[in-house]
User: Fold these one by one.
Assistant:
Number 1:
Amino acid sequence: QSALTQPASVSGSPGQSITISCTGTSSDVGSYNLVSWYQQHPGKAPKLMIYEVSKRPSGVSNRFSGSKSGNTASLTISGLQAEDEADYYCCSYAGSSTNYVFGTGTKVTVL
Amino acid sequence: QVQLQESGPGLVKPSQTLSLTCTVSGGSISSGSYYWSWIRQPAGKGLEWIGRIYTSGSTNYNPSLKSRVTISVDTSKNQFSLKLSSVTAADTAVYYCARGHYGAPFDYWGQGTLVTVSS
């Protein structure tokens, strides 16, 4: 099972919106509404930002939103802030044999 | 609020077995429909799911690691553990433990512990 494909880097200015894509296959992203997104600051543990494609855990800013179309999921950060600068990983359920596969990760830079 | 904390040796020799324990506090490991996972991250690289265990003892493993991995749970100690056998330098990574439930596979994480495989 290969990792889900994410762009290596995405950047934006404060206040702008950016979107990170996460491309899988019909065996993972395309088959299940079980995509989650994680934010990771340097030296820290990942933090759950989105689950079940578009749901936000309590305490996560509504500037973060998720969506899915076919085999590609997306994370959008609106009103970009300096604190959003971090690595972001998607993750999808991929069936009972593979279970979970992560994306390759995207470094978000706030210009 | 649930908290997780990894513990174990930071240095393991090649061909030996890596053993880590995750201690859960702030709630019973047996409460709710949760499962408990291990994830690792080599320096400068992405995340890799290792496997998970339900408190019933049922497990699922990453197919690429399945032959070397064992995850177990000790509900009396509110802990779950990871054993990875026949380690090589490629197993050097920060190892995280995490809680999950349907839809949110990793909602709480430990801080991570670095394990280096070297003679």
Number 2:
Amino acid sequence: AQRVTQPEKLLSVFKGAPVELKCNYSYSGSPELFWYVQYSRQRLQLLLRHISRESIKGFTADLNKGETSFHLKKPFAQEEDSAMYYCALSSNGGSQGNLIFGKGTKLSVKP
Amino acid sequence: EAGVVQSPRYKIIEKKQPVAFWCNPISGHNTLYWYRQNLGQGPELLIRYENEEAVDDSQLPKDRFSAERLKGVDSTLKIQPAELGDSAVYLCASSGTSSYNEQFFGPGTRLTVL
């Protein structure tokens, strides 16, 4: 079965500390993985996707097929990073796949 | 660009009443999705449209839920009759051929069934 697991419901760190939001997936094919973010009172939006291999707002995520993981990392957290983060898997492949979301992790960055 | 528009933003109804949600996707986006997000959970797909065709409605509870996208643009999601367990946020998203899997989400409709 296709599934995305985010083991932490809440992650609290201090400003300037490193942060890692964990994501594990279960998928039988070649996965496409994404991180979506929802800031307070804003709509859900794409943060980054694994095929781009880019850094957005200082965040990076590497797809590890051996460990079936796609953890989101940032070396120095900022207060404005506080938000809900959702890991998502595209189930269809191709250009318009359905997304399977994890339950989300709430990141709180304290001053 | 206004982004994906949804209305209403909030809806409170009594159980067994009908309710409808409306979505206007980003102009030019052929693919439209309806998701349901329960409290403390991630969004779960209900139905996906490619233009006016529903290409994946396997997760739509068809006994009480229905959806349409008659002209391949706006879409309406209906629940009739609503149950207490339908309380959730209903999200609409759209994507285009040039956005390669990036889905653009609307603000959602928060439904409370009493």
